[in-house]
Structure formats: structure tokens, C-alpha cells
Automatic annotation (TrEMBL):
SUPFAM superfamilies: PHP domain-like. Pfam families: PHP (PF02811), PHP_C (PF13263). Gene3D superfamilies: Metal-dependent hydrolases. Signal peptide: none annotated. Residues 4-70 form the Polymerase/histidinol phosphatase N-terminal domain. This is PHP domain-containing protein. InterPro entries: PHP_dom, PHP_domain, Pol/His_phosphatase_N, Pol/histidinol_Pase-like.
Amino acid sequence: MLSVELHVHSSLSYDGRDPVELILEQAAAVGLDAIAITDHDEIDASLEAVERASEYGLIGIPGIEISSKAGHVLGMGIDEAIPPGLSYDETLERIRDQGGLAIVPHPFQESRHGVMARISRSELARADAIEVYNSRLLTGRANRQAERFAESRDLPMTAGSDAHISEMVGQAVTRVGANEQSIGAILEAIADGRTSVEGKRTPWHISFRQAAGGAKRRMKSRVAELFE
């Protein structure tokens, strides 16, 4: 079983802090086998990580967190960014058009752009996999809802730290029963449901720090735009 981190943000995300090299260093230090950087509506850092991952003994999986009209969707195994603001169904289609997997993160965490605020359970079931453990949790209720839903629909399950700072990489991992150590084999195993999840809560003070840092960076960006 490979240990895979499927949900990480770099400094390319509006609310991320650290560059690719620090994220890869942390991933290697905590014993991961593979990692996907999934920035908000940006893919360049993820593609950089794919190129550099072998320097750290890792497999880099290209990915992105897309802001669909319904909420966030992870696109795995794609190499071109998918624009935000598309419908949920079109977002899934665009991911699959590139041969990728559509994984819905934190679907029941509506305050964090979970899709269940705007789509039905039948629509959620169209995803290729469901993130059932997100380490940035308050009570764990939303994670339990996601797990029960995935089990009831026999959908593949994943986990992710949703790290916005490098220290939190590896807080939640997906154990993947891949036949070989490659991007294709990992994605195939996830699609087949050969996964298990494990993780621990991101400490509240770090979640607060991540959120505060993101808000500060968003404010700076908006101020800069006013003077462009």
C-alpha cells in the first residue's frame, strides 16, 4: 500500500503559504510515497511538483481544486487548468476529458465550499471518489456524513490534509493499493476503490493560523488589484 497525500495547497493558492520545495521536503520527511498539490484554480505549482518529486523520492500527481458553481472539486491526473465557475456536471466532464479523476472534497462542509449546499445526493454520486476524511475539521460530523454516503453508494474513498502550510502535509493520507509506483497505477487503484483512509485533526490553532493567513493574503491581493 502506498501512502498518498491528495489535498495540499502551495503559495500559488490565494490562501496557501509555502513553495513547492518545502511541501516536497515535508512529504518526504513524513514518509509519503506520493503527493498531489491541488491549488485553487491554479495548476502550475502542481506541475512543478510532478517534475521535481523524484528528487525527493516521491511520485508527483498533477491536480487542482476547481471552484465549480456548486463548490470545490478536485481534478486528479490532469495537466491543464479547468476554469472556475462551470457547473458541477461540466466540471466533472472537463476533468474526465483529460483522462483525470473527479474527487469531491469535504462535500458536507458547506461553509468551506462543500458541494452539498447546491447539488443533490444523486449528483454527488456521479463523482469518481469522495474525500471522506479532511483533517481541517471541527467536530468530524461532516467527515462522517461523507463516509456514510460513500459507503452507501459504494464509491471510492480518499483522505486529504487540506494543508495550507507545509507542516500539515501528511495529516491525512490515502492508502492506495497500486500495482506499481506510478501516477497511472495510483489513479487506477483509487478509481477501483482500492483505498483506505487515515488521518488526524489539524490542531485548531494551526487551522486558525492558516485561515488568518489566507484572509491576509486575499486582502493584499485585492488592494494590489485596485492600484493596477
